[in-house]
Write the structure tokens for this entry.
Amino acid sequence: MYPLLDRIEIPAQLRTLKRNQLPQLADELRNFLVESVAHTGGHLSSNLGTIELTIALHYIFDTPSDRLIWDVGHQTYAHKILTGRRAGMAHLRLQGGIAGFPRRDESEYDAFGTAHSSTSISAALGMAVAARIKGTKQRAIAVIGDGAMSAGMAFEALNNAGVIDADLLVILNDNDMSISPPVGALNNYLAKLMSGRFYATARRAGEKMLGVVPPVLELAKRAEEHVKGMVTPSTLFEELGFNYIGPIDGHDLDILLTTLNNIKQLDGPQFLHVVTRKGKGYKPAEEDPVLYHGVGKFQPDQGIVQKPSSKPTYTQIFGDWLCDMAAKDSRLIGITPAMREGSGMVRFSQEYPDRYFDVGIAEQHAVTFAAGTACEGLKPVVAIYSTFLQRAYDQLIHDVAIQNLPVVFAIDRAGLVGADGPTHAGSFDLSYLRCIPNIIVMTPADENECRQMLYTAFQLDAPTAVRYPRGTGPGVPIQQEMHTLPLGKGEIRRQGKRIAILAFGSMLAPCIEAGNELDATVANMRFVKPLDNDLVATLADGHELLVTVEENTIMGGAGSAVMESLSVLNKNIKLLQLGLPDSFIDQGDPAQMLSDCGLDKVGIIQSIQKIFSL
């Protein structure tokens, strides 16, 4: 038996294989994927679960002419390997390498860029409508996970698709259920039956084909308690205007190929329910798919060896504070949009299960849900990534800020995030938050300040945001005793001459290093809103140059706040704003990315020297 994967560079070559060769290809692809991700790090368990589905889709459909859209996008490694990027996997998520998510500028096979969830059905529907208008026969296929289906946008698209009646295939990749063998066999048989032309014709005529076998269906329901959406004409997706097919075994290539080939012949909106298992084929990932969701480098034969960190991450600091604060105040509740592990809420969910709310991938709902609890006297803390809060911007303004409700936003992954690239970078939160009335915005410079700012935010009777970066801080000891910080007040951390550097958040450490070399004054500004205007005035009066430094886009950010303050104060002084440029910054090593943006000690010094004679 000779290797098959080496022969496949593009899906057209895949389609030359015989169907009985595809299981071998799946095994080779799975082995390659484990070895590759072990070398580079990345998403593993989700990708292992979609190997057979990926092969079947490229085998049956004429990609890239047929548009294949993956949602969320972190399960596309097999797709990348089969579409000419197998060699590129050696540099996955590294600077200059291929991305961990689909990108249109990376390959013609990436029909749509996806990294945030629940966008695929809307995009695929748009492409299906475009094909109809242009008179082409290309198909549009959206592959969406069961978690992503919890977002309102997915259902908005489904509702619209049923009305438009476009040739759209939505595949629900459901990896949160199990099908026992007998029930799985029955469902596979029914899926074959219901994806065929006879049933489609009969359905349009109003016939209920399965009406003749209700005892069989009832038996199946009793045998498998967790079967979701058994195929009946009254299922939710049928009511939305889709022809529902499934659930089928997403690791059975024979049933996948037959069902997809049948569906390819049908017109109108189709919905295929596929059941897969995260981590399929790699035992450690099967046993702990959460641990192997996003991994660093590891030895495939040993699995992940977890080593205790020498210092806590900001995420861990938040998680510990949340538990400590909950012990002090019974009004505290914790809310997350499906990011329990990523946001550091595992311990809280275990110790305070009645006060922990994972609302699913539904950022808009999370914010308005928090607002509702705040109206009734609770103190909600919303743990959310900076890049995901963007998805709930209207709710932030309309439901929280206008009503001036005391909701605390613990904003993780602020600034650059390394290998996850521009889709997950928290580059804009200072800009989009500071323009909202009533909200208070804090930027901790170190670990202890993060804990104290979270405590301060919780004490305030107003919307507050504490934004902190990914990873660890400078290593400042954490005081367990909590105290409030004076609202809107910064502090001088180093007294110098001629130049004053105004540091916001994570930029304080490199600013102090630069200040030591330049003999500059360095201020830890702490608050972006309300800004410490008195400190700005004092620094302007005593120096020849002010320099603002932030890990946020310069446009509209903290430096802009200082510029506005100087204008109101009528201070005529030279101002240099340093921060992230007006461009999306690609993936890479976090330290190198900051250096490339001029936000390390050397970059700060060089930027100052370019405009100021020392």
Notes: The longest helix spans residues 22-40.
